[in-house]
């Protein structure tokens, strides 16, 4: 068990796109084609990732789908940027009844790209041009099932941003790199975290944090040891 009650899986999951229909693959490819076109005039992703964009971005995002609750309907993606992982999740869930992925992005230019990508792929998304804090303040009691964020912030900062959305029953899906355990240890000083770390299918050193609960620690418990109690 890692820091603060987060267990770690050892087996890597299988191909997240196995069994995906040709139509869905075509929509994912259309998304990448649009990404490359818009990348010529604005910075959406690192240029070094474009030659292997299918694995680095599409497969990397798709691996979150099997970790979401089976009957999810509302997925919130924080700091969506070019749409990873949220837009990929929406394309893969296009035929799911009443599914919607809400993409939160503070850049107006990136929101324009996300809306065009949603149009081209006919993905069930709701693009919100807003800062995360402002969006979280307006959600109220609206039903949510999943909150995701990819390469947005260190875990401690990410939990601070996402905490208003991480209500009981909401699953957090946060891809992390090789420093996942270090981020967990640092975040555990201020947060009581429950969940699991799952190996990434695209990077042997990377992990996905599947979060079941994250609550701020009281001041008297901060800065102490790790809480390895049962989840």
Q: Would you kindly provide a brief summary of this structure?
A:
This protein is of the alpha/beta class and about 230 residues long. It contains seven helices and eight strands, in the order E-H-H-E-H-E-H-E-H-E-H-E-H-E-E.
Helix content class: 25-40%
**Average pLDDT over all residues:** 90
Major beta sheet, specifics? 8 strands, mixed
**What is the CATH-assigned architecture?**
3-Layer(aba) Sandwich
Going across the biggest sheet, name each strand in turn: 1-7-8-6-5-2-3-4
How are the elements arranged and paired?
Elements: E1 6-8, H1 22-39, H2 53-62, E2 74-78, H3 86-92, E3 100-105, H4 108-121, E4 125-129, H5 132-139, E5 146-148, H6 155-162, E6 171-176, H7 180-187, E7 191-199, E8 207-216
Parallel strand pairs: 1-7, 2-3, 2-5, 3-4, 5-6
Antiparallel strand pairs: 6-8, 7-8
Helix pairs in contact: 1-4, 6-7
Describe the structure in your own words.
This protein is an alpha/beta fold and 231 residues long. It has a single domain (3-221), classed as Vaccinia Virus protein VP39 (Rossmann fold). Helices cover 32% and strands 20% of the residues. It has helices at residues 22-39, 53-62, 86-92, 108-121, 132-139, 155-162, 180-187; strands spanning 6-8, 74-78, 100-105, 125-129, 146-148, 171-176, 191-199, 207-216. Strands 1-7-8-6-5-2-3-4 form an eight-stranded mixed beta sheet, with helices on both faces. It is globular, with a radius of gyration of 17 Å.
């Amino acid at each position: 068990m890692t820091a603060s009650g987060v267990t770690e899986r050892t087996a890597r999951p299988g191909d997240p796109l196995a069994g995906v229909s040709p139509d869905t693959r075509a929509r994912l490819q259309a998304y990448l084609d649009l990404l490359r076109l818009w990348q010529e005039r604005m910075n959406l992703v690192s240029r070094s990732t474009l030659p292997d964009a299918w694995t680095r971005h599409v497969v990397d995002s798709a691996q979150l789908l099997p970790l979401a609750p089976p009957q999810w309907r509302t997925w919130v993606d924080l700091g969506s940027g070019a749409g990873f992982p949220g837009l990929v999740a929406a394309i893969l869930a296009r035929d799911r009844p009443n599914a919607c992925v809400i993409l939160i992005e503070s850049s107006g230019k990136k929101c324009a790209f996300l809306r065009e990508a949603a149009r081209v792929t006919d993905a069930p998304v709701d693009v919100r041009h807003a800062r995360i804090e402002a969006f979280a303040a307006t959600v109220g009691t609206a039903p949510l099932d999943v909150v995701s964020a990819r390469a947005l912030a260190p875990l401690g900062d990410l939990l601070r941003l996402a905490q208003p959305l991480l209500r009981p029953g909401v699953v957090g899906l946060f891809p992390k790199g090789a420093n996942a355990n270090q981020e967990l240890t640092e975040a555990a000083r201020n947060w009581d975290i429950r969940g699991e770390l799952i190996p990434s299918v695209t990077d042997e050193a990377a992990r996905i944090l599947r979060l079941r609960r994250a609550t701020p620690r009281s001041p008297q418990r901060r800065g102490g040891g790790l809480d390895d109690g049962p989840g």
